[in-house]
Amino acid sequence: MTDKPAPLFDTLVIIGPGLIGSSILRRAHEDRRIARRLIACDISPEVRARVAELGIADEVAADPARAVRDADCVIICVPVGAIAMVAAQILPAMKKGAILSEVGSVKVTVMEAMAPLLAAYPDIAFVPAHPMAGTEFSGPDAGFATLFEDRWCLLTPPAGTPATALARVTTLWEMMGARVRDMTVEHHDRVCAIVSHLPHLLAFTICGTADDLADETRSEVLDFAASGFRDFTRIAASDPTMWRDIFLNNREALLDMLDRFIADAQAMGNAIRTGNEDVIVSRIKRGRAIRRSLIENRQA
Ligand SMILES: NC(=O)c1ccc[n+]([C@@H]2O[C@H](COP(=O)([O-])OP(=O)(O)OC[C@H]3O[C@@H](n4cnc5c(N)ncnc54)[C@H](O)[C@@H]3O)[C@@H](O)[C@H]2O)c1
Ligand SMILES: O=C(O)C(=O)C[C@]1(C(=O)O)C=C[C@@H](O)C=C1
């Protein structure tokens, strides 16, 4: 008889088991090679009760400092603006050698807020991660075990991160089904500004613009929304707290991408105004090519 190999972590703690946190829990609950013991901790009593009902964690806790005491790895899955506050609550309680991670959609400001906290705990390895996967839904009911399948997970380890900690977090995300890439926090925030944050800004804005139109036009928007507009409304349905935090924390990169977008949109407007078919057609062809390459890379 062969002994079963030890799981990647003995105790894995998820703080904030919403869409992302509960998806990690679901996957780890299905695949017990990831962790022997799963603990979920949330500030909301309703979320805690729901996670207990769903049965996706071995324990559900209210007090973050108590929840992390035995953890080998803690992943903070709360909105970007609350990550450092949660870290300040748990770092003093974590054991030496443990790994602290988070899944926030913005990295520069999180790293700036975390650096002074982490300086007091040199024995904790901090390995930020960002799974490029999600939906417009939030909360523990929205999660699913295959959310990260074939998606990218971007890691932004600070200089000096122990190689073993980085390797374990890489393995964790690979076991979640993701493909993993390391990058700097600055590069991460610029990439996400164009591929995720600007598209959401445009979606929220176009829905607002349509809604601001006269009553008669608004009814037409609703009547005929089973079209291109509908695709914008999906991401425009996303959580206000999460997106407020993303926009305010990735301010510079997002505003830079917005300026570039406005210039390009104006160029397209000019082409339409002057009847410049070549510019119009080449833009459309570029869009089609990008869509095709996403499909080929299994990202659409
Ligand atoms: N939704 C996405 O598509 C997506 C994708 C990748 C990364 N992210 C990032 O992941 C994080 C979580 O997003 P989500 O969509 O899972 O959010 P969510 O709203 O579904 O879940 C967040 C959970 O955190 C809890 N929470 C909030 N403040 C807390 C605190 N101080 N202490 C303990 N618990 C707290 C909430 O009660 C909630 O259960 C965010 O930082 C977001 O930017 C989101
Ligand atoms: O698919 C969606 O609904 C998402 O909004 C997911 C999405 C994205 O923009 O791609 C949103 C925010 C994240 O940080 C990562 C992924």
Automatic annotation (TrEMBL):
State its Enzyme Commission number(s): 1.3.1.12
Q: Which family is it part of?
A: Belongs to the prephenate/arogenate dehydrogenase family.
The reactions it catalyses are: prephenate + NAD(+) = 3-(4-hydroxyphenyl)pyruvate + CO2 + NADH
A Pfam family reported for this protein in Swiss-Prot or TrEMBL: PDH_N
Q: Which top class of enzyme applies to this chain?
A: oxidoreductase
Keyword NAD in record: yes
In what residue span(s) does the Prephenate/arogenate dehydrogenase domain sit?
10-300
Top-rank lineage group of the source organism: Bacteria
Q: Hey, which pathway is this one from?
A: Amino-acid biosynthesis; L-tyrosine biosynthesis; (4-hydroxyphenyl)pyruvate from prephenate (NAD(+) route): step 1/1
Q: Which UniProt keywords apply?
A: Amino-acid biosynthesis, Aromatic amino acid biosynthesis, NAD, Oxidoreductase, Tyrosine biosynthesis
Keyword Oxidoreductase in annotation: yes
Q: Which GO terms describe its biological process?
A: tyrosine biosynthetic process
Q: Which InterPro entries match?
A: 6-PGluconate_DH-like_C_sf, NAD(P)-bd_dom_sf, PDH_C, PDH_N, Preph/Arog_dehydrog, Prephen_DH
Its protein name is prephenate dehydrogenase
Gene Ontology MF annotations: NAD+ binding; prephenate dehydrogenase (NAD+) activity; prephenate dehydrogenase (NADP+) activity
